[in-house]
Amino acid sequence: MIALARCQRHPGREAAARCPSCQQSFCRECITEHEGRMLCLACLTKRSQPATGRGAEWERVGWAAGAVVGGLLAWLFFLGLGEWIWRATA
Fold first, then answer.
1. What confidence tens digit (pLDDT) does each residue in 37-79 have?
2. CB 44 within 8 A of CB 52
3. CA separation (Å) from 39 to 2, 21, 32, 43, 68?
4. Strand partners, 39
């Protein structure tokens, strides 16, 4: 029951809410709202850390490949534009 619960970090304080991720009770100072949910600092930190592992590596590869393809397309566009201008003035 939340009315009798105490804050996990501050035992002298009454708990204001329960974190849905870790199921621990926290006072108003230790819990915050994030995307419509009340989360404790530890769970909020876990959610906001960047992705690691194979998924993050492939994401970086995707961004790099996109940059290379974008650069190639820009080069081809300006090459074609320059050739068109050259032929128009000749």
1. 889 888 888 887 766 667 778 888 999 999 999 999 999 999 9
2. no
3. 15, 7, 5, 6, 40
4. 32
φ, ψ of residue 86 in degrees (nearest 5): -60, -45
Task: Specify the DSSP class assigned to residue 6.
Answer: B
Q: Is 31 exposed, middle or buried (0-12, 13-18, 19+ CB in 10 A)?
A: buried
**65 conformational bin, left if phi > 0, alpha if psi -120 to 50, beta if neither:** alpha
**Six-digit token string for 15:** 């708990």
Q: Give the residue, 54 or 20, on which the prediction is more confident.
A: 20
Instruction: Give the residue carrying structure tokens 């939340």.
Output: 2
Position 42 scores a pLDDT of 87
18 vs 5: CA distance, rounded Å: 9
Q: What is the per-residue pLDDT for 51? A: 60
